[in-house]
Design brief:
Elements: E1 14-16, E2 29-35, E3 38-44, H1 48-73, H2 78-98, H3 110-135, H4 139-168, E4 174-177, H5 180-193, E5 197-201, E6 214-216, H6 221-226, E7 232-235, H7 242-253, E8 258-260, H8 286-306, H9 308-321, E9 327-333, E10 339-345, H10 369-377, H11 384-389, E11 394-396, H12 403-406, E12 422-424, H13 442-450, H14 453-469
Parallel strand pairs: 4-5, 4-7, 5-6, 7-8, 11-12
Antiparallel strand pairs: 1-3, 2-3, 9-10
Length: 471
């Protein structure tokens, strides 16, 4: 065999087959081959056209359902609202197509893929409402249009997110970037854990006795990512080194998902006072920031008002389940490295120290019986709306970390502290939310660089859905 394998559309897409760990998915096919005595499994990715068709189908189903429900709300004759539903369906799908929202490949960050679609629907809503009132004035018409817009705004992003997540399961390809020997060793380790290595990026063109194809050098990182040669990069260099800062900053600015290999952590301690981010800033201006703050306050007041009965019930239930107070307090790091006390409903047994990593498994023995339910439904986060009212947090933003983790931040990781931390965020609704956030810092860096009210709206809507469905 040759020195490299070529995947869909000429892109490298090889990875080892792991015995006892079948890498199959009902939407995907696989092909195997031999290279230098090593069995290689390659993803046979379905046609991009098929994914686009499924997105059309999903949007059509959502808009048809929205039109049907809206028609029940209005007092229009069946023939009229049925015709209106058909016309709206065609018009909106043409607008969505024209805006380039139908993607041939699942986006690396799902929220990024639905923002355009939400923007199209949001801009057409006022026009739709005006036309409806001109043709048939009345409060029921207004209510019907409102129901239609709300269902479209929530249904289309959710249907696409679930489709992309289903479509891309098992297809994420990892590239290892670093020094020659280290990159190969990390590729072997990652393949043993995940079985989805696309190749390595090294400066040596002659990788001797390596079972992994050389995709290029570290300088080719951006161009290879844009050509979809891989979906995520793992750096096999020490996270505290100068080259790590350069590579990770380059990846962050171009929206490339990245992480560092296990064991390539920070060396030494760093102070988090007087944080200066490495050229990463929020694009929100003064008016947008003021609007975001106002919306934070309104949403927090509404949420806390509806949560008053829950506070009353848990004030009794939590102490009965395990000794201790109802509210858990912990020191966290907020905007500009300032410390604040975060509030949550207590879900774990009382311990002498609180400087412990957050549980990642529902079976963690630190979690109480009622705590498992609160964590599964995200109800334990509700007291944080008090932090939002105090100005310490926002509804949407990076997750606040504990000081003993944040004090080891690299300059790039400190960019998370440019904005207020949030109750929810892109990482919390991502497929990687079960893993530590500092291993997937690119979610927060993406948010900081593209912060907007529309992005906040998408994150909040998807958070509500995933919390209610338990996904």
């Amino acid at each position: 065999m040759g020195d490299s394998l070529v995947g869909d559309q000429g892109r490298p897409a090889s990875r080892r087959t792991i015995e006892g760990q079948p890498n199959r998915h009902p939407m995907h096919l696989t092909a195997t081959t031999e290279r230098r005595g090593v069995r290689i499994e390659r993803a046979a990715v379905p046609s991009p056209t098929l994914l686009v068709r499924w997105q059309y189908f999903g949007d059509g189903a959502v808009l048809l359902a929205a039109g049907t429900i809206a028609g029940v709300v209005t007092d229009l004759p069946v023939g009229v609202w049925a015709s209106a539903t058909g016309l709206l369906l065609v018009a909106l799908m043409i607008a969505l197509h024209g805006a380039g929202t139908y993607l041939a490949h699942p986006p690396r960050i799902e929220v990024a893929g639905v923002v355009k679609a939400v923007r199209v629907i949001a801009w057409t809503a006022p026009v739709l409402m005006t036309l409806a009132l001109l043709l048939h004035p009345g409060w029921r018409t207004l209510a019907g249009v409102g129901v239609y817009v709300i269902l479209a705004l929530t249904g289309i992003p959710l249907s696409r997110t679930l489709l992309w997540r289903r479509w891309s399961a098992g297809q994420g390809r990892v590239a290892i970037c670093g020094m020659n020997g280290d990159a190969v060793a990390v590729a072997d380790r990652v393949a043993g854990e995940q079985g989805r290595v696309a190749g390595v990026l090294t400066h040596n063109e002659a990788l001797e006795a390596s079972s992994w194809p050389r995709l290029g050098s570290c300088e080719d990182l951006i161009s290879l990512y844009r050509s979809r040669a891989f979906d995520e990069v793992v750096f096999s260099v020490p996270q505290s080194s100068l080259i790590a800062a350069s590579l990770s900053l380059r990846a962050a600015r171009d929206g490339i998902p990245f992480r560092f290999a296990a064991g390539e952590g920070n060396a030494g301690e760093r102070t988090i006072e007087g944080v200066v981010a490495v050229g990463i800033r929020s694009p929100m201006g003064p008016v947008a920031r003021a609007t975001k703050r106002l919306l934070d306050i309104v949403l927090s007041l509404v949420a806390l008002t509806f949560a008053l009965p829950l506070f009353a019930v848990l004030a009794v239930a939590i102490p009965l389940d395990s000794p201790g107070s109802m509210i858990f307090r912990q020191r966290r790091v907020g905007k500009d490295g300032k410390f604040f006390t975060i509030l949550k409903f207590r879900t774990m047994y009382m311990r002498e120290t609180t400087d412990e990593h957050t549980p990642r498994s529902r079976g963690d023995d630190r979690i109480t019986r009622i705590g498992r339910y609160l964590r599964a439904t995200s109800l334990d986060e509700i007291p944080q709306f008090i932090n939002v009212l105090r100005g310490e947090m926002s509804v949407v933003g990076p997750r606040p970390e504990m000081p003993f983790i944040a004090e080891h931040y690299t300059p790039l990781e400190r960019a998370r502290l440019v904005v207020r931390p949030g109750i929810t965020g892109i990482w919390q609704i991502s497929p990687h939310r079960r893993r530590p956030i500092h291993e997937h810092i690119y979610y927060d860096l993406y948010y900081v660089q593209r912060q907007s009210l529309l992005l906040d709206l998408v994150v909040v809507l998807q958070t509500v859905f995933f919390a209610c469905s338990g996904i």
